Amino acid sequence: MSDPSVTVVPAFWALGAAGLLGLLASVAAIVDGLLSARAAGAAAGTGWSRPAGEVARLMWQRRRATVAADTLLWRTGGAGLLVMALMIVTVVPLGAWTLFDLDVGVVWFNAMDVLAWAFVWLTGWGANSAHALVGGYRFLAYGLAYELPLMFALVAPAVAASSLNVGTIAAAQQGLWFVTWMPLAFLVFCMGVLAIAMWGPFSAAVAPDVAGGVSAELSGVDRLLFLGGRYALLAAGAAFAVPMFLGGGAGPLLPAWLWVLVKTLALLAALVWLRRRLPVVRPDLFMEIGWVVLLPAVLLQDLLVAGIALARS
Amino acid sequence: MVSHVAFWVLAVVAVLAGAAVFIVNSMARASYALAVSFIGVGLQVLLLQQNYVGVVTILMMVMEMAVMAVYMIMFMGMNPALMPMSMVHDKRHALAVSIGVFVLLAAGTLIVPWPTRRGTPPADVTMTLGEELMGPKMLVMAAVGVVMAATIVAGVVLAAHQTRYDRFGDDLRRRPADDPQPGGVGR
Amino acid sequence: MVLLVAAALFSVGLYGALSQQVVVMVMMGLELMLNGLILAAAGFWWFLAPDPSGQVLLLVIIAAMTVEMAMGFAVATMLHRVRRVDMTDLARDLSR
To answer: What parts of the sequence cross the membrane (chain A) (predicted)?
Structure first.
């Protein structure tokens, strides 16, 4: 069931993968710090230390308690995002190495990204606060709209490589990256990643108009975990896009694992940058966009890909 | 050995979480206890080497439970964490029946002389499942597809309270349609 | 052994489906019963006859589950909208 081009590394390398994910998430946070400093009109190059300061502040801060909070569910939700991101990167091959060579890796990613529905809503629910719950419901509304297009976007590379194994899909695009002939699926996938991480255009669930939404009552370590989870999800999503659409480790000169990292970083930086470039879409408006525009468009893309795959085989 | 231990741990988690569904008195906790139970079963199915079905179970059920929780809270409209209540009827008979069923099923599993295994599992279960679905068992796939489509239509018809006359006016000419929740296309 | 666990899940679900009053809770009981069925079917498949066609049954169970959920929610929404009830005992027109 496994692909010969991929070696499974022992389980203790999971620590390495976690470290790498943490590193990527920190880079994303630093890039965001730089960009927000620039947006605020500070001198170029300042703001890079902002994430470190924020971490220190949140570690120091005392936990806020709310009346009749469902603490178990609240904490589960807050920490869950980070766990989800870790589970996603287990199936992403780094060059020739992977932690978990699952033959249905693509479905695995999907199962993990659906966990976001549970965790985000639980974070909103657990605090027993109206604003947080509003944020949770907003996320579910996004979820109903983005999930099906995202699923069908993932179908496209799987059909083209006729495999659900992430390593095989990466190996299938040594000649031509999938992003070149399924750009729509790639864009929808990136949209899904943004939505899962509640980032940029999909940040209504944590928007200032509901006092921070899901994260309204989070403080201290809980807030740190939640924020870190969002950055980690962004990083994990970017990392997953590399074997799916961007050719995996394919590239000249550099070794495969380095190419994977370079591509992940590039995509991650682009996603972080988008935060300030796109307006927030309202969940109720996005619902119709998701079902009436994106879903048929992605289905057409799938049909096209299936046709090409049939013709090539 | 490791997989045996994992199986039993997951089994205990799945059954306890399943029982918790009817014990805890919070809608959110009940729905997500059921989700945990499903995740346990999904992982067990993974252990039984049926990767696709296992992962799909997790995928579908977590999604369903997220929606389930919304419905629970919508219909019951209060936070039972603040006011515990019992919502059962005829508890004793139900308990007796279910214990009886369990004893019956358990006795069945222990007493029936199970035949030995026929055939060997295919090397790539997911691949063969796909070929089976798209080949000899195409009828199943087709039937499931039609039933799903019918379900979507029937579900919307049952749940929606607006007809097209409410949306487009009596002469069906009103544009854009009058929806309680305006969409984002063409407005 | 798998079947024992499946039987336990099924029975817990049965208890819930029989004893709960609220429609949505009854549905959760049904789901739990189907959960047990999935496990039992997977166990049968693996230990008795691991040929590919058996897995189709599992997919049918999962599909049945989604259909049950969708229709259940639709009916529950309709009941709630028309009568403001969420208890099975209050929706018994057919028993009159």
So the answer is: 12-31, 72-100, 106-127, 139-164, 176-199, 231-250, 256-274, 286-311
